[in-house]
Amino acid sequence: MKYNIICKKLELADSSKEKLLKKMKKLEKFFAEDTEAKIVVSQQREEMIVETTIFYKGFFFRAEAKDREMLTAADVCLENLDRQIRKNKTRLSKKLRDSGFDKVIASTPPSEEIGEESEFKIIRTKFVEAKPMSAEEAILQMNMLGHSFFIFNNPDTNAVNIVYKRRDGNYGLIESEKI
Among the three residues 44, 71, 95, which one is the final residue of a domain in this structure? Predict the structure, then answer.
């Protein structure tokens, strides 16, 4: 695996980075060598926050943990990732396809402010590649990311759809119509 450690609002010593990488290498048994893992370590007040995102075959695995100690937060983060992977292992092996996951979601820096006559202020613009997948795959991806909605392209209708988590715990599907 390829690791990218990003430190926000703090500096980590090389020994701390090595300890963190040693812990993260436990996940290598699930992924191929070319898999990318992004580890963001930040500090908020007196807590250390470790956020890990792994991109593998079009799926994102993400976990975040907070603790006073960085390595303890990393352990909790690893446990959450391990649980996600094991929970979705059979579903992932059935759902993964070789095609359809060629492009990675791309995000851009915050957009320019909108003119003063507008009452709404857009502070960030994000561009998303709507990948072809079924609604079940989109729900699986949404849950692994920890998001409340997910945009995807329905290969049956060739239209952009959105799945979302409802307040009652069920899921909803928004299908777009071409005009």
Answer: 95
